[in-house]
Amino acid sequence: MQHIIYAEWLPIVLGCENAAKYDLLPKKTGYFNGYDDRCDATMSQEMATAAFRFGHTLIRNSYPRMDGRYWDQADPLQLKDSFNNASFYYNEKAGHMESVLYGLLGANR
């Protein structure tokens, strides 16, 4: 998850030049695969208030349901209706979970 954020998401949000300027792009080598219990992993107040608020503005109110050709397959999934309700994943007429995943992939095409 962390690699996806640094390798794909941040360069889109900040721009490749800014991500490189502030050394936010992943290194080719030098990864640490261990665990350091002395490392402080707490989150700063600035991160909690600013960055998380920005991230939440990227959430949409609805998500399309698409087929494998990225054509609309059913009515969009309303985010407000999906909280604590996984039944839309099992709706055969709407394309099951696959239609939601294709919708997430094809939403900006």
TrEMBL record:
Binding-site residues, heme b: 56
UniProt keyword list: Heme, Iron, Metal-binding, Oxidoreductase, Peroxidase
Pfam families in the cross-refs: An_peroxidase (PF03098)
Alphabetized InterPro entries for the sequence: Haem_peroxidase_animal (IPR019791), Haem_peroxidase_sf (IPR010255), Haem_peroxidase_sf_animal (IPR037120)
One MF annotation (Gene Ontology) recorded for this entry: heme binding
A biological process term (GO) from this entry: response to oxidative stress
SUPFAM superfamilies (UniProt xref): Heme-dependent peroxidases
PROSITE patterns for this protein: PEROXIDASE_3
Highest taxon above the source species: Eukaryota
Protein name: Chorion peroxidase
Species of the source: Enterobius vermicularis
